[in-house]
Design a protein that fits this description.
Blueprint (H helix, E strand, L loop, with lengths): L13 E2 L8 H30 L3 H22 L5 E2 L2 H17 L6 H34 L5 H30 L6
Antiparallel strand pairs: 1-2
Helix pairs in contact: 1-2, 1-4, 3-4, 3-5, 4-5
Length: 185
């Protein structure tokens, strides 16, 4: 982007602006750790449900909901701390800035916008790790317990994973650009 930002891209308010943006390598490591742990927790809960109550579909779905809740708590506990972008409008501006930066090959001039776009990119990469954990659960569940209602669950997990997968490519491209930028921070 040029020194004069387009009119629709303004500075955004950040939460915890003092937190650094993690490297792509660190995000990949923490995302892989989370995806593996999330799949393990999900499969353990489903195994317990199958062992204690059998393949009853009502309890199976309750078990999956409990596993998802545990996974969200796990994500919160091992998440790499990053700055946050306040308000929905700020998130939209950060996403627009990220898309513009990828298009022109240069990060935004405003530091809050630059950091906000990087933070949103980190969130998208973390969302993809969540989706990979869901998909691992579905695939391994199909293999380990073919008698349960995994086909429907697996299809739902794959559909849920499509959104983060689409955003991850742009997020990774922006983070690459961010890491190689000449702007401080």
């Amino acid at each position: 982007m040029s020194n004069a930002e387009p009119g629709h891209l303004r500075q955004v308010q950040l939460l915890h602006a003092e937190r650094p943006i993690p490297s792509r390598r660190r995000l990949l490591r923490s995302g892989a750790l989370f995806a593996g742990m999330f799949a393990a927790v999900n499969l353990t809960v489903v195994w317990c449900v199958d062992r204690w109550w059998g393949p009853d579909s009502d309890r199976f779905l309750v078990g999956l909901l409990v596993a998802l809740l545990i996974g969200l708590i796990l994500r919160w506990l091992i998440r790499t701390p990053i700055p946050g972008v306040r308000r929905v409008e700020g998130r939209k501006q950060a996403d627009l800035a990220r898309d513009e930066a990828i298009r022109v090959g240069q990060v935004p001039v405003f530091s809050s916008l630059r950091t906000g776009a990087a933070a949103r990119s980190c969130e998208d990469v973390e969302g993809a790790a969540f989706a990979v954990g869901l998909d691992l659960t579905g695939v391994l569940g199909l293999v380990l317990w073919p008698h349960m209602a995994w086909v429907v669950v697996f299809i739902a997990f794959v559909l849920v994973a499509l959104g983060p997968a689409a955003r991850t490519r742009r997020a990774w491209a922006y983070l690459r650009l961010y890491e190689t930028s000449t702007y401080p921070g």
